[in-house]
Amino acid sequence: MGRRKREPQPVFTTDPTGEHHGGLPTFIWKTAPPGYLTRRQLSAKGLRPGGQPVAAQVRRGGRIALLYREDLAKPKFTLTDDKLAAVWIAALSRQRCAGPCGRTALGYIPKQGAPCWGMCWDCTDQAREREQRNAHG
Ligand SMILES: [Zn+2]
Which of 14, 36, 90, 116 is the most exposed place for a label (fewest CB within 10 A)? Predict the structure, then answer.
């Protein structure tokens, strides 16, 4: 056997008090106690760390994953149907035609001011026709 023997890897053992890891509780991969989750695992449950400090870490070979406490996690910010509807209504109200039709047409109403005054093209045309009729008596 010509192969040189590898350097012995340092053996990591579970360190629940963090005594050997600067006070950070350290566990071997998949030996973390329940209630300690990675950011990704929290996310899968619809949670986020929510500003809490890192609660522990797990080691897997040379890789380290940070763990957070599930009981301190906060729900991820998600748009509920109500909030989504409010956003839509707000967006639509900005797109409401100022003319007689009063339609809401997202992306359809030209910007405020001349020549359209916040009206849709139909109302602008009608207004122009009226103006012309009035001008001609
Ligand atoms: Zn209109």
Answer: 90
In the chain, domain spans: 1-76, 81-136
Distance between CA atoms of 31 and 100, rounded to whole angstroms? 68
Contact 107, 116 (CB under 8 A): no
Give the number of other Cβ atoms within 10 Å of residue 15's Cβ. Answer: 17
| C-alpha of residue 110 to centroid of ligand 1, in Å | 11
109 C-alpha to ligand 1 centroid (Å): 8
Q: Report how far ligand 1's centroid is from the alpha carbon of 80 (Å).
A: 31
Residues counted in the chain: 137
- Per-residue DSSP letter, 30: T
List, run by run, the mean pLDDT of 10-residue segments along the chain (137 residues): 60 83 90 92 92 92 91 83 73 72 64 62 83 78
Alpha-carbon distance of 56 to 69, in angstroms, equals 8
